[in-house]
Amino acid sequence: MHTQTDEARRGESSGSRTEPDLSPGRLEAFSDGVFAIIITIMVLDLKLPVQNGPAGLVNLWPVFLSYLVSYILVATYWINHHHIFRQVKTVNNRILWTNIVLLFFTSLVPYFTAYMGLKRVSSFSAALYCVVMLLAGISFMALRLAIAVQFEDDPAYAIASRPAFRKNLIAAGLYCIAIPAAFIHPAIALGIIAFIAGSYFIPNAWIE
């Protein structure tokens, strides 16, 4: 009897070590901190103009434009991240690592935002910026799929999440269009990205 009990306890303790000791709330709080740091870093890239008067601010329009678009995008990622994490029951390794990948690509946004502003929104810098947005969008889809695994036996969730995933696919397709469009004119690519950001500002847009 004692041997079986000891083995059972060892099995339970070893099994508990296989799952990450992380609650959905703790992972969301960590992600919120990363999103806040990303936005703060982008603000630090806004430099004061060298030239005096309104002309100095006008000359910095590429920096302000890229900052505005990036701010909206990061904000919408944070809003939708919070929206989907309200449904998470437990955190497993798949959710943990897909969330880390999402934060990684999102953390690249300040760098390529600054690069695009430095190059005054050239075609190449805008195309690179769109590539980063595409990778972030794909990682968000991967996170949504990782969460959906927990609801495989819930038909109602499958019906409700299908339009959201379709919306993610449409956004990824628009990012793919924006990349070559940047070589036609950078403003076209930024317009497409701004449209995507606007559609995600309300989490259930195109869905309800």
Description:
The protein has 208 residues and is an all-alpha fold. Helix 5 (93-107) runs antiparallel to helix 7, helix 7 runs parallel beside helix 9 and helix 8 (155-184) runs antiparallel to helix 9. It has one domain (22-201). It is globular and about 60 Å long. It has helices spanning 2-16, 24-44, 54-58, 61-85, 93-107, 109-118, 123-148, 155-184, 186-201. The chain contains nine helices and no strands.
Give a topology summary:
Elements: H1 2-16, H2 24-44, H3 54-58, H4 61-85, H5 93-107, H6 109-118, H7 123-148, H8 155-184, H9 186-201
Number of helices: 9
Gross geometry: globular
Q: What's the pLDDT, averaged over the residues?
A: 82
Which residue ranges are poorly predicted, with pLDDT under 50 across at least 5 consecutive positions?
A: 10-20
Which terms would index this structure?
single chain, 208 residues, mainly alpha, 9 helices, globular
Short recap of the structure:
This protein is mainly α.
